[in-house]
Amino acid sequence: MGQPAMVSFRNPQFGLIGAITTICWAVLFPSDAIADEVPGDDPFCVERPGQTTPPCLVKPQSVMIETGIATWTHSRAENDRLNEVAAGATTVRYGVAPQLELQLGWAGLISSSHTASDMRVQSHSTNVGDMTVGALYNFSGQDGPAALQVYFALPTGKGEASKGDWSGGVRLPLAAALDGHWSVGVTPEFDLAANASGSGRHSAFSCALGISRAVAGRLGASLDVSVIEDRDPKGVTTIAVSSGSLAWQASSNSQLDIGVGLGLTASSPRVQVYIGFAKRL
């Protein structure tokens, strides 16, 4: 992907982005509604789909496998059009204690195709992506409303599918049930992201805000938006993406999902479509 154009929060057209960022930082001091949420007995807790991270955990001695069957992302930068397909991206989550789980992730097999404005293919590559290791700690139990997540990404991938250097980050997943059907989630995040050059790291700040609802039976729907300020040495960029998704809990231990994301700034991917599943063992 080419270097995105710089976007500033000071621009009035990004008032919505500024508002979302303000909300995300405000929830670092949880309200009484969040603090009083009552945990469930054995929730089916998955991170797919959507851009927020739930604070709930996999119960001790249990395994959750979450896989992106396929994700297609289309981006544009000047005269370069990038189409990227990621297949098999998987996260394995294992509960080690009532308030702690460990996570191991793989970005999958990633195929990238750069095309010029006249639709001529300039380059094409297919490589394996990077690995990620992390941990999620819930402050009050398996299904508590607030957690702390730490992760490190390792440059085990090849070519364009790899970031080229290690990176890491910290998230603060927060969630609250508004009533019997609606719930809201917020995930502020700080990262030491790998530089675009493939060597060294820089700071990046982000926040995701989402709302979800049980639609009918085992079917749920969610809408969310995320904002990322990436301070790469080559230039500061702001990426904002809104997305909508559907998730169907096929059984008490499995789920299928599908979703679409749309970019909100010039620096963001234009469109993303994904499908995936989760299975609790």
Query: Can you write the helix and strand succession as a string?
Result: HHEEEEEEEEEEEEEEE
Structural class: mainly beta
Task: Summarize the biggest pleated sheet.
Answer: 12 strands, antiparallel, barrel
Average pLDDT value? 86
Large-scale geometry: globular
Biggest sheet strand line-up: 1-2-3-6-7-8-10-11-12-13-14-15
How many DSSP H or I helices?
2
Low-confidence stretches: 1-14, 27-40
Helix content: under 10%
Please tally the β strands and state the result: 15
Strand residues, percent: over 45%
Radius of gyration: 19 Å
Q: How far is it from the N-terminal to the C-terminal residue, by CA?
A: 37 Å
Secondary-structure map:
Layout: H1 15-26, H2 32-35, E1 63-77, E2 80-97, E3 100-106, E4 109-116, E5 121-128, E6 131-138, E7 147-154, E8 167-171, E9 174-177, E10 182-194, E11 201-216, E12 219-232, E13 235-251, E14 254-263, E15 271-280
Antiparallel strand pairs: 1-2, 1-15, 2-3, 2-4, 3-6, 4-5, 6-7, 7-8, 8-10, 9-10, 10-11, 11-12, 12-13, 13-14, 14-15
What does this protein structure show overall?
The protein is mainly β and 281 residues long. The protein has helices at residues 15-26, 32-35; strands at 63-77, 80-97, 100-106, 109-116, 121-128, 131-138, 147-154, 167-171, 174-177, 182-194, 201-216, 219-232, 235-251, 254-263, 271-280. A hairpin with a 2-residue loop joins strand 13 and strand 14. It starts with 14 loop residues before the first helix and ends with a strand. The relative contact order is 0.20.
Provide a concise account of the structure shown.
With 281 residues, this protein is mainly β. Helices cover 6% and strands 57% of the residues. The model is unreliable at 1-14 and 27-40 (pLDDT under 50).
